[in-house]
Amino acid sequence: MSQPLGAKPTAFELVTELKGKGLSNAEIANELQRDPKMVWKILHGKTSGAAYIPTLTELARDGHASTRPARRRAKDGHIVPVRAKAGAETKTIIPEDTQGRYVPVPKRGKFEAATTYFGEGARQHEVRFPKTKGAKGRIAAVEDLMSKIRGAAKAQRSHDKRVQFSLTFADGRVMEVGSKSGYFASDVLYNTRKHGDNALSWLVSQAKERYLNLDVDSVPITGVTMKLYDATGLAREADPHKKTNVGKRDTVQNRILRTGKKRPAFNPKRDLL
């Protein structure tokens, strides 16, 4: 049954549209600041999701959302408790009210992350963090970047994914790393593992290959923009899982295939740049 002319789309229609653009339930839920189960309920008709329509509309239209849906309240006005995450000390918690519109507010020395979603599964992650080595915000940035890189590599099971990086340094300098077509997501994950699961350490190594006189100790990285998209038409010329490929370099695709030993796990005091 078609929708009347001029009628606003339902939450189900908006979520379906976003899914068609390549967003996962978890990504939609993150923009709503809700559990992914709520997105599942909308898709299966368990809830109308009317309270989420403004945020979903903004997300579908702009690729990101600044409006957050209000938390449900009881008759006396207090916020209704929600189920706590597994392993929490209590079964329920009182969530923070998210109602209203949010605009980016720069905070010195804080870790900040934002994502913009585009069509066909493409997205852009922006991460900003303090320049001080060992700062909590910098450690959080490494963990956030690694989470995004793992997610990109996992998504490559169905489609090859390319990743491009742009680095911002403390002096305002912006640098692109990698070839014009970027890196394959699985290769990025592999190489960051060689750097102890430290995305910043690997990115610094890539930047130094381009600028031999780069001094990241005096001018550290303070921001990373990560662009992810399907590698349409970019054939993988070599299978990195075959033993015959170990130690070879695919110069056409600018890919370093699996070789070398894995470094110890990421240690902030030792490895953070």
State the gist of this model.
Helix content is 30%, strand content 18%. By secondary structure, the chain is α+β, with helices and mostly antiparallel strands. The N and C termini lie far apart (57 Å).
Radius of gyration: 21 Å
Termini gap? 57 Å
Strand content: 15-25%
**Main β sheet profile:** 6 strands, antiparallel
* Low-confidence regions: 100-106, 234-262
Number of strands: 12
Mean pLDDT: 78
> Overall 3D geometry?
globular
Number of helices: 8
Element order: H for helix, E for strand = HHHHEEEEEEHEEEHHEEEH
List keywords for this structure.
273 residues; alpha+beta; 30% helix; globular
Draw up the topology in text.
Blueprint: H1 11-20, H2 25-32, H3 36-43, H4 53-62, E1 67-68, E2 82-83, E3 92-93, E4 100-101, E5 112-117, E6 123-128, H5 136-155, E7 161-169, E8 174-177, E9 183-184, H6 185-194, H7 199-210, E10 221-230, E11 249-250, E12 255-256, H8 268-271
Antiparallel strand pairs: 1-4, 2-3, 5-6, 6-10, 7-8, 7-9, 7-10, 11-12
Helix pairs in contact: 1-4, 2-3, 5-6, 6-7
